[in-house]
Amino acid sequence: MQVTHINETSDADCSCGSWLMHWKAYSGKPLPPSCSVTTCYHRPTVGAHVQKENDPEWYIVPLCEEHNESTTSLEVGNIPLVSANRAETCERVAVGS
Asked: In 1-97, where does DSSP find H-type helix?
């Protein structure tokens, strides 16, 4: 799947502690041993904001530092994309609260 890294999102924060922990909490998966880019074997160190082609939504995927700086399209493997919309995830108010 092709995604594009969204630059200038470092000011956006999340109540999960980091976007990488946000991905882990809402993907239901353990942190992968390598970057989500299919040809990369570096350790993922950040939860990066990305967009799928023709999709206005923002998502989080685990990336290494190098790919987190990318300005080109990235091929990611079979990795869950987690919504970066905090209102739908970590800031969602539980029903009945």
From this structure: 19-27, 65-68
Dihedral angle computed from the Cα positions of residues 18, 45, 32 and 71, in that order, rounded to the nearest 10 degrees: 100
Answer for the pair 9, 51: CB distance below 8 angstroms, yes or no.
no
Closest by CA to 92, choosing from 15, 13, 12, 9, is 15
pTM: 0.88
**Confidence band, pLDDT 50/70/90 cuts, at residue 96:** very low
Domain ranges for the chain: 2-88
Q: Tell me what the mean pLDDT of segment 65-86 comes to.
A: 93
Q: Which residues of 16-50 are buried (b: 16+ CB within 10 A; e: fewer)?
A: beebbebbbebbeeeebeebbbeebeeebebbbbb
